Structures are given as C-alpha cells and as structure tokens.
Fold each of these.
Amino acid sequence: MDFLPIFLNIKGRSCLVVGGGEVAARKTALLLKAGGQVRVVSPILNDELGNHLQLGNIIHYAEAFDSKHLNNVVLVIAATNERSVNQYVSESANQLSIPVNVVDDPALCSFIMPSILDRSPILVAISSGGTSPVLARLLRARLETLIPEAYGHLATYAAKFREHVKRRFSSPKKRRLFWERILQGPFTEMVFSGKNRSAQAYLLRSLEHETDELPCGEVYLVGAGPGNPDLLTFRAMRLMQQADVVVYDRLVSPAILDMVRRDAARIYAGKERDKHVLPQESINHLLVRLAKEGKRVLRLKGGDPFIFGRGGEEIETLSQHHIPFQVVPGITAASGVASYAGIPLTHRDYAQSCIFVTGHLKNNTINLDWSALARPQQTIVIYMGLHGLPVLCEQLITHGLPASTPAAIVQQGTTHRQRVVIGSLETLPALASSANMIPPTLIIVGEVVKLHQKLAWFEPVYDLNGK
Ligand code: SAH
C-alpha cells in the first residue's frame, strides 16, 4: 500500500488553494463542500472563484504565493500551471509538514486526491495511487451503478433509529446481527424506493419481534427496456443483481438475462403472440407464491412495465396479498426504437403529438378509434402490429390519412439485429412481408419518418440491405 487512505475533518479549518483557474475552482468547490475555510492565492481569479469571493465563501490573496500564506493551514492544494510555482508551494509545505497536493504531479504530492462517490454521509474514495486517475474514475462510474443515490438517505435513516435499537438490545453482538438483517432485507429496498413510512413501520415491527424472521419476500417489477443492455436503468441493474428468482418474458433479450445474478433461478413466462407459456392469471399467482416463500422476485419485462405490459394487473394481485413491491420504469419500445432508428417522435414542423396504440388483431380486426388516429401532425406508434399491418394501413387510409404518409417498421430495435424498413401506408405491408420481419417489431406512422434518411445514426451489424 503506497498511501494511507483517511477521511479528514476540515470543518472550519483553513485550507489553501494556490491558483485561480478552472482546476483551482474545482478543488475549491470540493473543499467548501467538506466545510473547509478556503483561502485562494492567485493574482487573478476565474469567474467561478470570483463568484465565490462575492458570496463571501472564500478569502482571496491577489498576489503571488509566499510561504507566509501557509500560516495555520491544515492542507494545501497547488493548481497553477507553472511547475516552478507548484514546486515552491510543495517544498514550503513539506518544510512545515503541511499535507500538500499538486494537481497532476504525484512527485510533488504528500497526499493525493481520490476519485469520489458521494452518497453523504457514505463516501467511497478510490485511488490508483496516482498511476491512472482515469482508471479510478472508470471504477467509480461502475460503483455508481451499484450504490444508488439513496444510500446516503439509508445511512441517515438508519442513524435515526440507532438509539432505539441500542435500547432494545444491550449486547453489541445482537445489535450488529439486527442491523445486518435489517440492512439486507426489505427495509433497505423500502427506503431506496421512497417508501419511508413502510420502512419505519417494518423496522419498528422487527424490533418488537426480533426473533421472528418476518419471512416475506418482495417483488420488483422491472422494465428491461427494448433489448440493448446499455439502456437498462441503474436501479434495474441493481435489483437484477440481488434477485433470488427472475420471472421473464420472451421480450427480455438474452444479453439482458445474462446480467441477472448468476445464482438466481430463472422462470420463463412466455408471452409470444397467442402462445403464452403461462397465462396471465398464473403469472400473477406465481409471483405471490414466490414472494411468500421469502424470495426476492425479479419480474423482468420488456420495455416499460406500464406500457402494454400488463404490469398493472400483476401488482394488483400482489397488493391484494400484501406483498411489498416496487415498479422500475424502463425505456419503452417507442422511445428506444425511435431513437435508434433516427425517427424523432415529435418535431416542430411535422408532429406536435404522438400516440401509442396496440395493433393486436382479434378475429382479424383491430378495435381502435381510427378517426382519432388519422389526424395530421401526429405520429402514431403501433406496438404488436406486425400481423395486423395490412389492416392498420388500410384503415388509416380509409379514415383520411394520405396513402403516401411515410411509415416505418423496425425489427428488434436498439439491438445489433435491428432492421428498418421504410415505406408509406400504401407500400409498407408488402415491403414488410417480403423483408420477412421477425418480432418484436414496432410500426411508426407519420411525416417524422421522413427524417430517418437524414438522422439514422445506429449501424447494426445485421442490415436489411446488406449496406
Ligand atoms: N412493455 C413493452 C411493450 C410490450 S408489448 C414496452 O414498453 O416496450 C410488445 C411489443 O413491444 C412488441 O410486439 C413490439 O411491438 C414492441 N417492442 C418491444 N421491444 C421492441 C424492440 N426491441 N423492437 C421493436 N419493437 C419492440
């Protein structure tokens, strides 16, 4: 170990920053955040530091650095672009045994600054010992996904109950066991998902029945987005990492399923067109049963769970059985697919509204309010519309949209198998059929489709025209 990691209390203590540019401003902001009294030595200050001065946040010495500036300071940061000045600061500080950091010059530093993940009061500091700050930053970005914003809140919240717990358990070992159980159980998820009242009630209940394990699992209804794992949310990722069992649909791509915790049991719930492996009823009850066994159940759905996902029905059953659940939104196919196909869903000149509908065929007809759809300056996004495509196009024309209205069908959007076929209401059914489109596909109708030609940016490996 080349450095000793410590967390320094600088509240109300004087810290010196030498330099008046952008880097100095960044370091100043950090010192201020930790409650330090910052003195800045520099003939000139940039706007940000000037602002701090006006607000009375810092003390400014508009002169060259001199060792007298080191009087009574607990640490020094040199951030000038003159190496000789930085060196002089470093030597002067070292003579007085004051910790000194010279930005981007490890040889002149007696301490280095870590990359920080701030979930105050939780702080994670990462250092590469000065060898590769970029690597430290990349690691921090990975931790960002694992340690949600709400960790700080969790720590503060737990602190509120510390005395309570102390009074309840006199033995430190029992206290530790209690906290270990609480912080790894539903309490934490409740705090994370903003269910503070339930969290408090749960904690108080657990305090009363300390020996009962309260073996109730929970369900995470998570939107996995349109298929590309990069489009998962941080929260989805985290819950995928802690689930005991995952119940997933056909729409969830293998790449995403691969990211679920290795040890989690996997249950396929189907949902291919007209070929449901498990009927909706049984899915709802399966979730209840698994949760009652005390499991953390990940119900993973394509796109967003509340958009043509029947997520509402699943949690209704959970709520009837008093099973704790949370819902994590995902990027719905319309926005994911449109972005990756270079088709903005609204546009100042072409569409001021956008409507999402399902094109599911029932007895060869589609029950939609056609006149509400066939309106100018509106984009129509059709989910589950591949089989009904001829009927859809025909009805839209019958209800007044010009046959030449641009229309697109996109297969497996956002993934490397994405294919886009562009035509008009008149030509699209034949084009789609000769292209042999494979589900899932999304249909977009409206003038905005024209923009695809200019705005397409994504280059999937597998391209219809072999381009
Ligand atoms: N809850 C999902 C939609 C479920 S309905 C969401 O919010 O996206 C299933 C339909 O979604 C499919 O028939 C298809 O129309 C559409 N879909 C989902 N993922 C898609 C993708 N990657 N590419 C094209 N269409 C997709």
Amino acid sequence: MLKGKTAIVTGSTSGIGEGIAKALAGQGANILFNGFGDRAAIDTLVADTAQQFGVKTDYSDADMSKPEQVRAMVANAEKHFGSVDILVNNAGIQFTAKIEEFPAEKWDAILAINLSSAFHATAAAVPGMKQRNWGRIINVASAHGLVASVQKSAYVTAKHGLVGLTKVVALEMGEHEITANAICPGWVLTPLVEKQIKDRATKEGRSEEAVKNELLGEKQSTARFSTPEQIGALAVFLCSDAAINITGTTHSIDGGWTAA
Ligand code: NAD
C-alpha cells in the first residue's frame, strides 16, 4: 500500500514509534528511524527492518529538542530518499511533579521535544508534500491531549498543544491530498510508562504489579494496555486511501479512558 513512500518516525528507537515504523515498513514504506539508545541495537533495528520488509531504511540521531537538527533531519531525508511523504511526530518524554515543584528545565524540555519538534518537522516537510500533492502527518498525542491528570502540567500542556497544531495543519493542507491527525493513546506498556510504574512503586513501597493494575484501573475500563502494534495499525489506516477525508481530528486508542 505504501510502496515508494518514505516515512520519518521521530522517536522510533523504542516503544510506540518503533511499532509505527515497523507497521509502515510492513506496508512497503521506506523508514527514517530517529531517537536515542544503544547504537549497536539501533543499527540492528534499522538493518533488520530493511531486510524483513524489503524497504530502504536509515537513521538520524537528531535531537528533537534542537530546532535546527529537526529541520536538517527532514531536509537530509528528502535528499537521501527523494521524498518525505509521511511524517510521524512521536518523540516524547515525561516528567511528573506538582506544579510548584516542577523544574523549569523539565518544562522547557517537554515543550521542546513533545510539541515544538512537531512544529519544526511539519514546517520543513510540508513544502515537499505540497509539491507532490500527497502527504500524511500523524502526531502521537495522548489521552492527555484531551483530558488532564495531576502532576503532568508540562506533558498535558504539550499534548493539548499538539492536538491544536494538528487542527491548524489540517486546515492549511485541505486543498492538497495531505491530512493531519492526532493519535491519542491511553496506557501503552513502553519504557516511558515502565519508568512511571517503577518510580511510583519505589516511592509508595509497593510492587510494580500492584501499581500497574492500579494505573489501568484508575483510567481504563478495559484494564488492558494497548500495544505499539495496535497504534501502528491505526497509523497505517490513517495513511490509507480510505482515510483521505479524515483530517484535523483525534483518534483515541485508550481503553475507554476519555469516555468517562
Ligand atoms: P519511549 O520512551 O519508549 O520512546 C520515546 C522515544 O523518543 C525513544 O525512541 C527516545 O529515544 C525518543 N526521544 C526521547 N527524547 C528524544 C529527543 N530529544 N530527540 C529524539 N528522540 C527522542 O516512549 P513511548 O511510550 O513509546 O512514547 C512515544 C510517544 O507516545 C510519546 O510522545 C509519548 O508521549 C506518547 N504516548 C505514550 C503513551 C504510553 O502509555 N506509553 C501514551 C500516550 C502517549
């Protein structure tokens, strides 16, 4: 379905981004991986994806908190692959604290990585998409793009901002075959959430299993985590021809979190 198209997936060395990158590669898209981690493991991921799905892959170590690196990543991908047709703004970090204790540098980092990087990448990618009259922009927001939780002021602010950005981009791209959508996952068991579980278990002197069940029980009627593969399948659908008129909106995959 996506043969000949190229996708950039930011933060795809782990978790949801990796799931989306593999799902798009499974449909024939070339992939530019991005994110941090052990370099040997990243090289293996990039090479294995190319081999498994018969697509071209590459890797950028661009830091999403640095606007010039974000824009250079897009420009280099256009040169290397010939086009950037799908942009998945997924890279993200988390930090929790009460607002009066929230470190200013954590606020700045979350806003830069979880929100501003999507602005810079989108601005750099849309001229080429307009020229080719085809594009898909997928912003990985969160249930926290729609509702709030305590101790997550920066994260909730960034994710609400990302939903707003998605809407503006959709309106500006309306006359082209370019859509912009936000995926809003609830709990997905990735390193980002495993760290929250571990921190809470340590702080409260409880088992990680107990905290896991409590997290799910607090928010999701299904009491089940979503998987990166399920988020990847939704991203594939949003890239399909069937989704051409779906734009400027949010797609929850949250086990009922935002139904309450
Ligand atoms: P993760 O920690 O497994 O992956 C995060 C990815 O972002 C990694 O590849 C990491 O290297 C990369 N990254 C972090 N800082 C970066 C930077 N400065 N520059 C480039 N890459 C950077 O987390 P995840 O759970 O897969 O999260 C992916 C996205 O999904 C995030 O935007 C997160 O907010 C969102 N999300 C996650 C959940 C969840 O339950 N896991 C729920 C809703 C939304």
